[in-house]
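Bug report

Summary: structure tokens for Glycoside hydrolase family 19 catalytic domain-containing protein differ between web form and batch submission.
Environment: batch mode, default settings.
Steps: 1) Submit the sequence below via batch. 2) Compare with the web form result.

Sequence submitted:
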Amino acid sequence: GSVDDSRREITSFLAHVTHETGQEIDGPSKDYCDENGTQYSCNPTIGYFGRGPIQLSWNFNYGPAGTAIGFDGLNAPETVANDPVIFFKTVLDQQRTRSSSRLWCNNLECDGANRATIKGRVRCYTEYCRRLGVVDP
């Protein structure tokens, strides 16, 4: 694409990382285990809260990401926070596995749910566009 397309893509990535990094500060205190999922069963001693630049969370996300990237997502999700290569591979895996229309939304935002969170994500994007000189966000 054009230089502007590249700038928009970079600003989108930075905005989502900024937005997601602040989302689950209290994550360890919450239960991110879908106990109905049998394919990626929870380890009862593990917390599946958000980690990584795009907040990988829930057992049904850690399991397949671990398989695809090469770490034990169900029994060692902290690898995402402790291994810088795995940390960034989670972004590439999410990009590879999600459809483009849902690439940068999570289950609480897709399909227009949680409008306040969506607006926060858009604010991050437009601010990065302003800082990086993107003329047409």
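Above is the batch result. After comparison, the two runs are identical; trailing whitespace caused the diff. The helical segments are 3-21, 59-69, 79-82, 84-97, 115-132. The chain has a mean pLDDT of 82.
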